[in-house]
Amino acid sequence: MLTVGRDPRLCNLAGPAGNDMPRITVSKKLRFEVFKRDSFTCQYCGQKAPEVILQCDHIDPVAEGGTNDILNLITSCFDCNSGKGARSLSDQAVLNKQMDQLAELQARREQIEMLIEWRTALEKIKEDTTEKVAEHWSAAVEGRASLTKTGKDKVRKLVKEYGLDLVLRAIPEAIETYGRRSGDEHLLTMESIDHAFSKLGGVCRVLRDSEEKPWLRRAFYVRGILRARLSYVDERLVMHLLEECAKRDVDFDSLDRLAKSTSSWSAYRDVLEQFIESHPVEE
Predict the structure, then answer these.
(1) Cα–Cα distance for residue pair 211/207, rounded to 1 Å
(2) What is the pTM of this model?
(3) Which tens digits make up the pLDDT trace of 37-76?
(4) CA dihedral of 246, 251, 254, 256, whole degrees rounded to 10
(5) Residues 96, 101, 105, CA angle at the centre, nearest 5°?
(6) Which domains are seen in the chain, by residue range?
(7) DSSP character string of 88-146
(8) How far apart are CA 54 and CA 49, in angstroms?
(9) Which residues of 245-262 are buried (b: 16+ CB within 10 A; e: fewer)?
């Protein structure tokens, strides 16, 4: 009869001497969690990484049915783990370690619950804010319309981007600029209300930019006059020319009057270009 020797490549799968129970591999992720919990410190001798090589040891040895549950794992340095073999820690040490782990798990659970509660409250605030803005819009259009779910979603995004105060300021601006009235009762038309709401984001942007460029609102007003009176306006060019005029401290009231009396876009453009050319800005 032939006797086959043990394959050395399989030695790391063997249990303690006289026991053929295979070892249970502890994953890298689980080892890291154990090391973090134990502050990267050997729980037997107190030495820390990187002065010593740390390993994951089973409190209840694998040979006695110990598992890879994190409550059964402890940080050990190489020397302590090699010398300890399959011996267990004292019952009190095991109890203390498991009590510490349970306390940490409870603390984590409580923090997760608080985090969820906090985020839920934030979402509630967002929803309440959206509803208040929707009510403000309905009042601003004199009860003629209310926001749909899609409209409220847009309001929520605008508040996130521009802030509540700016959105509330933009609502009357949008209605005043784009709202139109008709009939004997002089009511806002539904078409103009929808148009005003579609322009709400643009009005928010103008108000924000106007804080840095005070002339911008007057320039938009002038452009609006030209757009309403003339068949064609180069809107990008007129804003550029008005900005150049603002750099030269032009009186925007005169630009308003000119816009109300001009016969064509080219005539208005020529006046602005002549003014800019005759008033160079000193560098």
Answers:
(1) 7
(2) 0.50
(3) 888 888 888 888 888 888 888 888 888 888 888 888 988 8
(4) 50
(5) 150
(6) 14-89 (1.10.30), 124-212 (no CATH), 214-283 (no CATH)
(7) PPPHHHHHHHHHHHHHHHHHHHHHHHHHHHHHHHHHHHHHHHHHHHHHHHHHHTTTS--
(8) 7
(9) bbeeebebeebeebbeeb
